[in-house]
Design brief:
Layout (H helix, E strand, L loop, with lengths): L1 H19 L5 H12 L6 E8 L1 E22 L4 E6 L6 E2 L4 E5 L4 H27 L5 H26 L2 E3 L4 E6 L6 E2 L4 E17 L12 E6 L4 E9 L10 E7 L11 E16 L5 E2 L5 E6 L5 E5 L1 E6 L2 E5 L4 E7 L11 E4 L4 H19 L1
Parallel strand pairs: 1-20
Antiparallel strand pairs: 1-19, 2-9, 2-13, 3-5, 3-8, 4-7, 5-6, 7-9, 9-12, 10-11, 10-13, 11-12, 13-18, 14-15, 15-16, 15-19, 17-18
Helix pairs in contact: 3-4
Length: about 375
């Protein structure tokens, strides 16, 4: 029995000596050295150096053309229409006669009013002379004067009524509609014709609460009509009260239309000029989303780390898009932005690198980033 204890003690001492000798760490130590020597390479991304340039800034909204003035001409006296001098769709000048109402008894009333005025004038002169001689009281003189004034008013009234038998265009424009024909009877206030003024022409659009503070009255603008015609103009009106239904503000651009070839009601794309802005031109293909779902681009900062910038769309072209919200100088990631996280360190490869090398590195980069994501 003691022999077995001695054997066990000898084995224990041998194992302890081997452990204390440190030989057991030789192989693991070599493995750690290999891992340290083989460090994980940084994910590669392709970057482009972009410099902001000053660019014309504009706000583009959809609108439509509208006549600068529109009025429904109404009769100011009653009677039968005896003449129509302008057809529907015709251009008229200010003061042109559109139609005429029959005179009927108005001419005889005019003669009667003139005769009565003459009589009242004689009576008043006689009363005034008698009053000066003390043969007539001042009351009788005042009565004669009142009758004279009444006769003058009656004559003026019949003259105005006769004048109203000619229905006159209040301003230059086009006769858009005509509600009467020869022989029709019109009462006072009855519609005769609608006249619209197309020179100048207006382009009307609605602006949101965010955009309304960006423009000013007198600011320049252009409108592209549905037929492709482009017309320049200036902002003449900005609403001070928003629509209750849409919470938008009406804006009007005024443009010349001397020939009258621009019609009211045409669809137009209104471009309102804003203050110039610095912008970068990028491809839509490099856009990405942040963790919060904002649209933007990823770039590499001076420390070699990924940074996300939300962008503001300024303009779109067939060759790319102009955006704001970026620093004046920035290294934008053009390849690999979807495989790197904001704040991570990367190996940025300029776009000017050799094509074959970039292609090979790109494959390695994608593999590394996919492995890193897993």
């Amino acid at each position: 029995m003691r022999k077995s204890y001695l054997i066990a003690a000898a084995i224990t001492l041998a194992v302890g000596g081997w452990i204390l000798s440190g030989q057991y760490i030789d192989e693991p130590k070599a493995s750690v050295d290999k891992i340290e020597k083989k460090a994980t390479p940084l994910p590669r991304v392709m970057v482009r150096n972009s410099v902001a340039t000053r660019r014309k800034n504009e706000l583009v909204v959809l609108g439509h053309t509208r006549a600068s003035r529109s009025v429904t001409l109404k009769a100011e006296t009653s009677g039968r229409i005896v003449a129509l001098l302008v057809a529907k769709g015709a251009w008229v000048k200010k003061g042109d006669v559109i139609a005429r109402i029959a005179m009927n008894h108005r001419q005889s009333k005019l003669m009667e009013a003139r005769a009565l005025l003459h009589q009242r004038q004689i009576e008043f002169e006689a009363a005034k002379e008698l009053a000066a001689r003390k043969f007539r009281s001042k009351v009788r003189l005042a009565e004669s004067q009142t009758k004279l004034i009444s006769a003058r008013a009656e004559l003026a009234q019949i003259k105005i009524d006769i004048k109203h038998t000619s229905l006159i265009a209040p301003f230059a424009g086009v006769v858009e509609t005509r509600a009467i024909e020869i022989g029709d009877f019109v009462a006072v206030g009855g519609a005769v014709a609608t006249i619209v003024d197309l020179s100048p022409i207006l382009v009307v659009a609605d602006l949101t609460e965010i955009d309304i503070d960006k423009i000013r009255i007198g600011g320049t603008a252009t409108a592209k009509l549905i037929n492709g015609k482009i017309i320049p103009g200036k902002i003449r009106y900005i609403a001070r009260q928003a629509s209750n239904a849409t919470r938008t503000f009406v804006v009007e651009m005024e443009a010349l239309n001397a020939a009258g070839d621009i019609m009211a009601g045409m669809t137009a794309k209104l471009s309102l000029d804003l203050a110039p802005i610095k912008a970068h031109k990028i491809s839509p293909a490099i856009l990405t989303l942040s963790k919060l779902g904002n649209v933007g681009v990823k770039a590499v900062d001076g420390a070699g780390r990924v940074k996300f910038y939300p962008i503001q769309l300024i303009a779109e072209e067939t060759s790319g898009m102009w955006v704001g919200g970026l620093p004046d100088r920035v290294r934008i990631i053009t390849v690999g932005q979807e495989f790197v996280r904001e704040g991570s360190k990367v190996n940025a490869v300029p776009e000017a690198a050799p094509k074959q090398k970039i292609k090979r590195d790109g494959r390695a980069k994608v593999t590394e980033l996919q492995d890193d994501a897993r």
